[in-house]
Amino acid sequence: MHISEGVLSGPVLAGGWALAAVGTTLGLKRLDYDRLMTVAMLSAAFFVASLIHVPIGPVSAHLILNGLLGAILGLAAFPAICVALLLQAVLFQYGGLIVLGANTFDMAFPAVLCSLVFGPWLRRTGTVRSVGAFCCGFFAVLLAALLTATALALSGEAFMTTAWAIFLAHLPIMVVEGVITAMAVGFLAKVRPELLSIRLAE
């Protein structure tokens, strides 16, 4: 779901950079530096998952795992995702440096929003935790697809078809991400339950 260089309009690019800068700054301020290793590992998981593309019709889709990052990192998902996207742009030319702000916001904001909405469910037990984790994974991808499609649509009517194609291609990914996030959270609840208790603010 990377937006390539030369696609977005100037105002959309500027808005993406401004929003990503605010989110990343807040994420760094809230970051518990004792958990840097956790942030690094999840950033690496996001980096690797986004490299595996599956063709779906005229476009391709891939795992994102932004919901999982949001569930565990909260606001720290912003810097984690930003670093992963930066490395992808530099090493593999996925996305680009100019659109890094928009791509970061499109992936990270849904992660943080889902963390705020469903985070309390993750600290419960049983079915409630599983449902909350599934919702984190599902809705983080849903919102990311909507934000990406919106950024394209705001950049010109010529991109409307591509915007719809991106959104529709990620519908099955939403379900898969929900299941993966639920399984990962269930596992972490057994072996590292403290990871699910990170607060977004003090």
First and last CA, distance: 33 Å
- Using the coordinates shown, work out and report the CATH topology: Arp2/3 complex 21 kDa subunit ARPC3
Fraction of residues in H or I helices: over 70%
Structural class: mainly alpha
Give the CA-based shape: globular
How many helices does DSSP assign?
Answer: 8
Q: What value does the Rg take, in angstroms?
A: 16 Å
Outline the fold blueprint.
Elements: H1 10-30, H2 36-49, E1 53-56, E2 59-62, H3 66-73, H4 77-92, H5 100-122, H6 126-154, H7 160-169, H8 171-191
Antiparallel strand pairs: 1-2
Task: Summarize, please.
By secondary structure, the chain is mainly α. It is about 70% helix and about 5% strand.
What does this 3D model show about the protein?
The chain is mainly α. The protein has eight helices and two strands, in the order ααββαααααα. The protein has a single domain, classed as Orthogonal Bundle (Arp2/3 complex 21 kDa subunit ARPC3), CATH 1.10.1760. The protein has helices at about 10-30, 35-50, 65-75, 75-90, 100-120, 125-155, 160-170, 170-190; strands at about 55, 60. It has a two-stranded antiparallel sheet. Strand 1 (about 55) and strand 2 (about 60) form a beta hairpin. InterPro entries: CbiM/NikMN.
